[in-house]
Amino acid sequence: MIVYKFGGASVKDAGAIRNLYSIVAGAQLPLVVVVSALGKTTNALENVVNQSGRPSHEVDIAIASVLDYHLQVADELLGQGNRAAAWISDSVAGIRDLLSVAGDRGPDWLYDQIVSLGELWSTRIVEEYLRKRGLRSRWIDMREVLITDDRYRDANVIWSESERRLRSAVKSDDAEIFVLQGFIGATASGNSTTLGREGSDYTAAIAANILEAESVVIWKDVPGVLNADPGWMSDATLLDNISYKEAVEMSFSGAKVIHPKTIKPLHNRGIPLYVRSFLQPDGSGTVISSNESSTESVPVFIRKENQVLLSLLPNDFSFVIGENLGKIFHLFYRHGIKTNLVQASAVSIAVCVDNDSDRIDALTSDLRGEFRILYNKDVEMISLRYYTEEAIRKVTEGKKVLLEQRTRKSVRFVIG
Known about the structure:
By secondary structure, this protein is α/β, with parallel strands linked by helices. It has 16 helices and 16 strands. It has 2 domains: about 1-220, 3-Layer(aba) Sandwich (Carbamate kinase); about 300-415, VC0802-like.
């Protein structure tokens, strides 16, 4: 068993899905194919969620736009009157019902019920196209096999039940290719959940772990894992192989190639992860495994944008240790805010987080009674692995450095 994962860019239109077919048709079988939502569908459905409470015509425009996009792709690949298009149209009809009960269940619940539709629609189109082209495929609804808790937008997998269900779902005499949705699951009571933004990589790792796969391949629009985002640094170079540990460090620091949760399920079973280009499928790409990294001679540059630097100072000048520290991080967890960088002194703590204004406002409201809070908005966090002084100058020269952390192998800067 091998697991392939295709992200939104690899299924952005009919031509991209034809390319997916050509890659899958030449794969070793049996094969699990994890597919993200088409193109920028997740963003479009987030826009639909944000229309909740607005005039009905604005909601209709937002829904119609994302529906038309999918019907166009389905019709081009499958012809008029195809089953995928009919199924998608039927499911779209339920969006307005979801919006009408949003106030009863909360914004995170609503987000997961609507945004999860993108993966369901994309996989319906992809799986039907694979069958049309003669492949023995089957569509699996991950809401029925990946069971999670009810922490909406960042759900935790209930492994024992998910293992039982997924293993049962892929036992089949009539299929060799199983098409799964990335990013989504459901509670035991049937409410859709999501695993966190860009969580399809994590879904692929979960499936590989449960099914004891030989390997996982993530297909992307870059040749593999690079030492920098090529959109940021034009001289970025390919890293041939990196260790699980190095991959975790890079993804936690903000590298966009893989989701931070992806590595642990693979490491637990020693499953290698390949990152390859769907534009150049014959390329070697990058392998992530238990072997030592080949990166130590090359500085790795990672930039995490749209950050907020929060500085917390106790009003009574008590030490930020023990009970204070526990209270602070309990509140971060309760409000669903992940810390990207933490630096503490005796009487203050600085924390860099993603800029989610609603969650940050709720957090600071709870903290303000005991702490004075200072903000730096619109900052970026830059991490260097295997840094040199030349590499540091490359990213800090002429910039305002608000905070610096340095270890033997890594240095991080928060830059205003």
